[in-house]
């Protein structure tokens, strides 16, 4: 159905990090928000993306924010970096989704929701590390990878899943010995993301806990956040709710704190 | 969300959070329609990966359950929950539970019609005495040997001596499906109370056809608890008997009294070939009679049916369905080596296992797949997730695999507007038991190789 060669070919085709983004990140890392905004202005698609994201209701701005320097100024270094990463990941998303009933609007919505709620979680946990803020950006890459690898195999997958409730991650591991989150790590390495980013995302798969206690704790929050978002009716209807398995036991020790933070009743 | 179907149970598996805002998204009307069309005995929502639910969310499912029940009389409810979730559901609905709760999916399988999940020893415990009895009766009707533990202490003390233990399980309105069990080579259906036009909805005709296709020849209706029947039920049983005759199968009624049913009905049923006995043991303990009725062997077809042109025309599709499925499961390429019309011939029987699946509708027949154990194991690895030598697990998974082949056949034929249904799959641990079923039946035998391993495909009627 899917071979190791196809997976390797997908990884090879991931484009290098665009030059403008590379420069933007370099400036963001040293806290040069204005200079970073000036460089980012040159990428019109990035500008349109950021404008779209920060004006979503979840960010709660009363007036439309359209200028990049204004956007970076409001978001600050960590969230600006997080959103530029979100944009990078969105570059991998297909023009037309076929496996999942998604479109760019809905995908950006998912990115925005995850990012904003991840910020709430990190503030609650008193974490300020900007790379950890950015980690959540890599998470939706797993959805893009699933779409890319399985979109030609919809009938086969449906037939398989009509007999046994297997998630895409498990199918991929059993066929190729590599999982969706390994591929996310490959993307992160190719784009020279900080290693904490992919370590958290790997553990957030819920099936590969980290030995590092801090990373593991953050991964639990991320895993639960993912399924909190994927329980949104739009994402359930898009077919995302069961694309990977939710590991209830993995998050059991942080569930009460999470539900209180998200005001779940 | 689509349901996964196994052993007569369709299961939906939502993940995460479940409330009044999103329950409709998990289970749309179309999903429910599709699940109803699967003709499952039981339709369940698994709560295994649900971390939060509230009453509003469950209420939406329960409304859908009610629609399903009205449409196809299936048992509906929830499964895979822990003690906290069970207590929450009981608290939400208190005395108004008309759906069922099965602690695990494995427990639910004990209440469905499936050959392999029968004759189990089961210890049952419930604080509610009427529930204890209801569970025990249902299990008994499905061919198991239930024992009731009268107290929690007794339950904990005896647990280890039983194959299955059941607690935290609640039978709401059970489906009206006719309970089925297997005794030796006979299939026993339990029918009760008033039999009317509903019998055609409540009787699992797929299971019955499957049983005929895989070689069962004796069907006994346990009718001790039948009060009366009307002309619609009479017609139903007469037709069932007539169609069974094509397979040289026999239909018997045991314990049926005709004090509230017209005696002429009995004559009509006898004319249709139905036999009547007073007690079950009159049949099951009489070896001579069993032999005469066709239950001494898994296959006893006098009227062998030949492969017809329709089946041969569609043969490439059948081969394609099998090859593509095994290619998908093994990630290897299939090469067709030879094909011929003949009786099934397997030169080396050792180290091989087999499975079969029937199809019926616009055309009918049976596909048999014979695997060297190594290919079977390889093909099942995707479904099992590990290398195993547990033969029961491999056979169980092989049944799932052949079910996928059946599904593929169904969809390939549907592309040409040929409508068929598929039967439940059957597996054979040894080749002799397969040969007994297809003895002297001509078919098309095709040999395929996967990475130099030989695999055999046989299509017959």
Structure description:
Chain A is globular and about 55 Å long. Chain A is mostly helical and 265 residues long. Chain A has helices at residues 4-12, 19-29, 33-40, 44-54, 68-90, 104-124, 130-138, 141-150, 154-163, 168-176, 180-190, 195-203, 213-229, 233-237, 255-261. Chain A folds into two domains: 4-16 and 97-261, no CATH class; 19-90, no CATH class. With 461 residues, chain B is an alpha/beta fold. Chain B has three domains: 4-166, Transcription Regulator spoIIAA; 179-293, Transcription Regulator spoIIAA (2-Layer Sandwich), CATH 3.30.750; 309-460, 3-Layer(aba) Sandwich (Chemotaxis protein chec), CATH 3.40.1550. In chain B, the strands form five sheets. In chain B, strands 16, 17, 18, 19, 20, 21 and 22 form a seven-stranded antiparallel beta sheet that branches. In chain B, strands 1-2-4-6-7 form a five-stranded mixed beta sheet. In chain B, helix 10 (231-245) links the parallel strand 13 (218-229) and strand 14. In chain B, helix 15 (315-330) crosses helix 16 and helix 16 (373-384) packs across helix 17 (391-414). The longest helix of chain B is centred in the last third of the chain and has 24 residues, at 391-414. Chain B is globular, with a radius of gyration of 23 Å. The two termini of chain B are 36 Å apart. The chains are: A mainly alpha (265), B alpha/beta (461). Chain A binds chain B through residues 1-3, 155-156, 158-166, 170-171, 174-175, 224, 227-228, 230-234, 236-237, 241-242, 245-246, 248, 251, 255, 259, 264-265, and chain B through 1-6, 11, 13-18, 21-22, 24-26, 28, 48-52, 54, 324-325, 327-329, 331, 381-383, 385, 400, 403-404, 407-408, 411.
């Amino acid at each position: 159905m899917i071979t190791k060669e196809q997976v390797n070919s997908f990884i090879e085709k991931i484009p290098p990090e665009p030059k403008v983004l590379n420069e933007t990140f370099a400036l963001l890392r040293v806290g040069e928000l204005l200079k970073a905004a000036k460089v980012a202005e040159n990428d019109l698609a990035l500008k349109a993306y950021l404008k779209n994201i920060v004006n979503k209701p979840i960010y709660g701005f009363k007036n439309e924010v359209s200028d990049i320097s204004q956007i970076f100024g409001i978001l600050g270094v960590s969230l600006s970096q997080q959103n530029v990463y979100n944009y990078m990941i969105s570059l991998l998303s297909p023009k037309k989704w076929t496996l999942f009933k998604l479109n760019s609007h809905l995908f950006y919505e998912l990115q925005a929701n995850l990012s904003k709620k991840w910020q709430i979680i990190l503030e609650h946990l008193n974490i300020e590390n900007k790379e950890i803020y950015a980690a959540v950006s890599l998470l939706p890459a797993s959805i893009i990878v699933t779409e890319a690898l399985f979109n030609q195999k919809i009938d086969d997958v449906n037939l398989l899943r009509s007999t046994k409730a297997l998630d895409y991650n498990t199918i991929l591991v059993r066929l190729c010995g590599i999982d969706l989150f390994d591929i996310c790590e490959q993307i992160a390495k190719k784009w020279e993301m900080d290693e904490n980013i992919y370590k958290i995302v790997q553990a957030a798969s819920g099936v590969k806990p980290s030995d590092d206690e801090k990373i593991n704790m953050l991964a639990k929050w991320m895993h639960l956040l993912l399924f909190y978002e994927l329980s949104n009716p739009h994402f359930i209807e898009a077919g995302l709710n069961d694309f990977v398995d939710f590991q209830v036991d993995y998050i059991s020790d942080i569930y009460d704190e999470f539900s209180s933070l998200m005001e779940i009743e | 969300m689509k349901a996964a179907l196994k052993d007569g149970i369709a299961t939906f598996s939502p993940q995460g959070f479940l409330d009044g805002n999103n329950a409709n998204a998990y289970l749309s009307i179309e999903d429910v329609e599709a699940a109803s069309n699967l003709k499952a005995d039981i339709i369940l929502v698994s709560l295994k990966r649900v971390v939060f639910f509230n009453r509003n969310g469950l209420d939406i499912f329960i409304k859908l359950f009610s629609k399903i029940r009205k449409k196809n009389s299936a048992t509906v409810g929830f499964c895979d929950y822990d003690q906290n979730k069970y207590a929450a559901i009981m608290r939400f609905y208190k005395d108004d539970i008309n759906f069922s709760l099965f602690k695990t999916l494995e427990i639910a399988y004990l209440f469905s019609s499936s050959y392999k999940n029968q004759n189990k020893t089961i210890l049952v415990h419930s604080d509610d005495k009427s529930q204890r009895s209801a569970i025990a009766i249902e299990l008994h009707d499905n061919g198991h040997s239930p024992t009731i533990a009268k107290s929690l202490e007794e339950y904990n003390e005896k647990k280890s001596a039983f194959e299955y233990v059941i607690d935290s399980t609640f039978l709401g309105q059970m489906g009206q499906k006719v309970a089925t069990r297997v005794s030796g080579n006979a299939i026993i259906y339990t029918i009760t109370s008033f039999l009317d036009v509903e019998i055609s909805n409540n009787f699992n005709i797929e299971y019955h056809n499957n049983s005929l296709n895989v070689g069962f020849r004796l069907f006994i209706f346990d009718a001790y608890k039948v009060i009366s029947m009307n002309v619609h039920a009479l017609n139903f049983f007469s037709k069932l008997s007539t169609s069974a005759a094509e397979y040289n199968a026999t239909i018997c009624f045991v314990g049926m009294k005709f004090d509230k049913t017209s005696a002429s009905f009995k004559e009509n049923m006898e004319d249709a070939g139905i036999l009547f006995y007073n007690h079950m043991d009159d049949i099951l303990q009489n070896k001579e009679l069993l032999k005469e009725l066709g239950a001494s062997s898994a296959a006893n077809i006098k009227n062998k049916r030949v492969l017809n042109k329709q089946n041969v025309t569609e043969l490439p599709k059948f081969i394609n369905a099998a090859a593509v499925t095994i290619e998908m499961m093994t990630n290897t390429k299939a090469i067709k080596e030879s094909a011929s019309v003949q009786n099934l011939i397997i030169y080396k029987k050792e180290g091989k296992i087999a499975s079969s699946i029937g199809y019926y509708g616009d055309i009918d027949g049976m596909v048999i797949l014979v695997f060297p154990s190594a290919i079977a194991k390889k093909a099942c690895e995707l479904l099992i997730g590990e290398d195993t030598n547990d033969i029961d697990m491999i056979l169980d998974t092989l049944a799932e695999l052949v079910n996928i082949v059946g599904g593929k056949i169904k969809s390939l034929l549907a592309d040409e507007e040929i409508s068929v249904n598929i039967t439940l799959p059957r597996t054979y641990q040894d080749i002799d038991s397969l040969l007994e079923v297809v003895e002297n039946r001509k078919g098309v035998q095709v040999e395929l190789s996967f990475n130099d391993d030989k695999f055999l495909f046989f299509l017959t009627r």
